[in-house]
Amino acid sequence: MKARYYYGYNIVAAGFTIQALCIGAMFAYGVFFKELQAEFGWSRTTIAGASSLAFIIMGAVGILAGRLNDRIGPRVLIVASAGFLGLGYMLMSRMQSPWQLYLMYGGLAGIGFSTHDVITLSTVARWFVKRRGVMSGIVKVGTGFGQLLGPMIATLLLSIFGWRNSNLIIGTVILASLVAAAQVMRRDPRGMGLLPDDDGDMADGQAAAVEEPGFSMKEAARMKQFWIICIAQFVVLCCLLTVVVHIVPYARDFGLAPAYAAGVLSAIGGVSILGRIVMGAANDRIGGRRALIICLIVLFCSFVWLQLATNVWMLFLFAVVYGFAHGGFFTVVSPMVAELFGTGSHGLLFGVILFSGTLGGAVGPLMAGWTFDVTGSYRMVFLVLSVLTLIGFVLMILLRPIAAREAGR
User: Is residue 232, in this structure, part of any structural domain at all?
Assistant: First the structure.
């Protein structure tokens, strides 16, 4: 008999909240660029380097988090990451030197960021099958809200309290809110005697007999599809995280006041909500590969437009086009991994793929900061991002379904 209310919706709501809080904190970092430069005289390479370190640590720890989620579930992992993220931001309010920035944001916050994607999306992939794309999209809408509200709230706090107290407030709120959201999380429906997709309760003894389908890490590592996705994740996140870190300082160089510059980042977050919903639904209808190809086409068009932008409205139009692709890409990867490789080791597989992406996310902002410091312009950066998007497009064209003989084993 069908349950009157499916607990999986609680998982989606908690995942939404976790995504919003973590990504809001991540996007707030770019708002403090100019303040750190003004107070300490640090270069953009130095400041972006801390972000790059955070991305690397986020990805590396995400592999472990994904593996642990496959075994013990999400609740303890989210609480632990909340402690690292909250503490990192709170301690940033006291920093005086670059090594402290790298330790507190690059190290502690990087560990804190590690669970927001791999844990929430891997858990949702177990609770839903037929509506996996839509539910993943709803969870990732939380990211859009974080991107939309995070820079705006950080800018407001900055104008009232200064950057030090703003970091202290952000860290305190993040810690308390993530711990509360973690209490809702459960690994999978079978642990509660339920079936995925609100298909009712399990029959007596059925839970013990059901084995989660899917390839192991060892099996997936032998397949070219797995490595194609890893490389595509690397090149695309190199593009996306470069924009996240550098679009606010670029907008301020463009002549925008701090609030309007943060508004460009918020516009990206706001429009990404639409991209997450639309492409999540598209994933369920046309599959992850085709959905990703659409996102890459839109992403390429946005970078071409950015190189032509000469005034403020063109910059905000970039934010609209880019934001749709940004949101779509982050939504469809997890369902595609489950579609190709199953859910038995989804946390570990998705964690490795995310790590590939965070390596790109580390290289991109650092490359952009160094290029700006040398040339005084982002022009070459945007050209490189356009080329990388084309490489991602070619990789998705080459991706093919796993052969029946492999799937059947």
Answer: yes
CATH number for 142: 1.20.1250.20
pTM value surpassing 0.70: yes
Nearest 5°: the CA angle 329, 332, 335 is: 155
Mean per-residue pLDDT over the chain, rounded: 86
Name, in order, each residue with C-beta under 8 angstroms of 99's C-beta and a sequence gap of 6 or more.
none
Q: How confident is the model at residue 361 (pLDDT cuts 50, 70, 90)?
A: confident
pLDDT tens, position by position, 186-218: 888 887 788 887 765 554 444 444 455 678 888
Is residue 199, in this structure, part of any structural domain at all?
A: no
User: 198 lies in a domain?
Assistant: no
d(CA 11, CA 16): 9
Range of the domain at 121: 8-188+212-408
CA angle 13, 284, 61 (to 5 degrees): 55
Q: Is residue 201 in a domain?
A: no
Tally of structural domains, the chain: 1
Residue 404 burial class via C-beta count within 10 angstroms: exposed 0-12, middle 13-18, buried 19 and up: exposed
Q: What is the 3-state secondary structure (H, E, C) of the chain?
A: CCCCCCCHHHHHHHHHHHHHHHHHHHHHHHHHHHHHHHHHCCCHHHHHHHHHHHHHHHHHHHHHHHHHHHHHCCHHHHHHHHHHHHHHHHHHCCCCCHHHHHHHHHHHHHHHHCCCCHHHHHHHHHHCCCCHHHHHHHHHHHHHHHHHHHHHHHHHHHHHHHHHHHHHHHHHHHHHHHHHHHCCCCCCHHHHCECHHHCCECCCCHHHHCCCCECCHHHHCCCHHHHHHHHHHHHHHHHHHHHHHHHHHHHHHCCCCHHHHHHHHHHHHHHHHHHHHHHHHHHHHHCHHHHHHHHHHHHHHHHHHHHHCCCHHHHHHHHHHHHHHHHHHHHHHHHHHHHHHECCCHHHHHHHHHHHHHHHHHHHHHHHHHHHHHHCCCHHHHHHHHHHHHHHHHHHHHCCCCCHHHHHC
CA distance 326 to 319: 10
